[in-house]
Amino acid sequence: MSEQDYLKDISEIKNLMNRSSRFISLSGLSGIFAGIYALIGAGVAYFFLLPNQDYVTLHSWNFKMLVGLLIAVAVLSVVTAFLLTTRKAKAHNAKIWDDTTKRLLLNFMIPLVTGGIYILIKLNSQHYGLTAALMLIFYGLALVNASKYTIGNVKYLGYVEIIAGLICAALPGYGFYFWVFGFGVMHIIYGSIMYFQEKKQ
Amino acid sequence: MGIIENINKLFDHRIRLGIMSILMVNDDADFNRLKELLDVTDGNLASHIKALENAEYILVEKQFIDRKPNTRYSATKLGKMEFKKHIDALEKLIRK
Lengths: 201, 96
Description:
Chain A is mainly alpha-helical. Chain A has helices at about 5-20, 30-50, 60-90, 100-125, 130-145, 155-170, 175-200. Chain B has a three-stranded antiparallel beta sheet.
């Protein structure tokens, strides 16, 4: 075999590994959007729902609005990611709902749902102090777990989220800012890096 | 140094190389998934799978899903090791 053949082999291997394992990777844009939604959500919360900077009591109107805001940010992020990824999949002629996607989602959801339920239980017993830290930690774990089914670098985002969550847990009272950093700033940074990598290819 | 030794004859074919590439990054894959990704005929794929299975590079597990037979393939430790050696050898050859 000539050098050309070896080169062809290697590019074929790369191509197959990507196509078979990578859930075409969420497009970088969806990360940027998720970050922007999180920042807008945080802004709304900061200016309208946390006016006196005191703690928010459970079952108050403010608290319900905060939860609603969180859900809105999450739903918007997921819908945007879904639409952008479907578009990308179509452009690459790849199927979006195959074995890889199912495994990716399952592995992503296990830590995430566990964390979500745990946070709800904690909230119900009046422990809101660590909510931001727990959200960051479990989200980070979900990313690291799901990254086994992608070729991209999402695990590094996961590590950052976990570390941010742990620092946040050690510094009570700054949860809001860590949340903004983890879900807003980090998503935008990570999304931009991904976006420029995609452009280069 | 034995670069040429590490070039594995078994991987000297596009389809066998493809099957291993897929199984390196997926825990397992079934027949149809491999077929779809590699774009080959049933008979062709089956014979290459057999070759890899005989070398014990891949593991074949037959099971039933909704009473339909389903065969899943996964790479063995030996298969993964050999594939890595092969890739390293390829890279060295190219860099020469």
